[in-house]
Amino acid sequence: MHKDVPLLKSTCGYKYLLPEIKAQICNGAGPAGRWISSLIPNTMYGLDCTEAFSIHDYDYHVGISWDDKARADRRLFENLLILINHAGSWLQWLRRRRALKYYEAVHHHGAEAFFAELLSEHEKNS
After folding, report:
1. What is the pLDDT of residue 37?
2. Which residues are bridge partners to 48 per DSSP?
3. 9-13, 91-95, 114-118: which has the highest mean pLDDT?
4. Of 10, 31, 93, 94, which sits with the fewest C-beta atoms within 10 Å of its C-beta?
5. Measured between alpha carbons, how far is residue 75 from residues 24, 85, 104, 123 in Å?
6. 32, 25, 34: which is closest to 54 by C-alpha?
7. Which parts of the chain fold into alpha helices (H)?
């Protein structure tokens, strides 16, 4: 495994998050506050993917439209592939397969998590 860290794709806002704000927004793999998250690892066969999941969490936090959600989901997949390709190893094919599963999960089942904050704000203002 390479010691240098690959540059992942993110929005400008993510790069300037204060650590305490990042800790509030980003929870790793899985939906925040849901029991299922405890079953979803931040690693893929030993490869730490926490930063890719944190970027995805931030994208969901600032997104407001279906296009934003789709962009966030694609960026997660791209960032996972960047990490996998950078790490190399004979485990690449397994990690790529797992990355696709993560993408499919957020693409098909991530709407509730994506829109949760928007719905919460709407209910407060109603």
Report:
1. 82
2. 43
3. 91-95
4. 93
5. 21, 15, 13, 29
6. 25
7. 12-15, 19-25, 50-62, 66-87, 92-109, 111-125
Beta strand 47-48 with 43-44: parallel, antiparallel or unpaired? antiparallel
The CB-side HSE value for 102 (13 A sphere, CA atoms) comes to 32
More confident call, 46 vs 3: 46
**How large is the greatest C-alpha to C-alpha distance in the chain, in angstroms?**
54
Q: Which two tokens stand for residue 44?
A: 């893929």
Rounded to two decimals, the pTM is 0.88
Mean local confidence (pLDDT), 81-90 = 95
DSSP assignment letter at 5: P
Instruction: Using alpha carbons, select from 36, 28, 71, 73 the residue that is nearest to residue 53.
Output: 28
How many CB atoms are located within 10 Å of the residue 95 CB?
A: 22
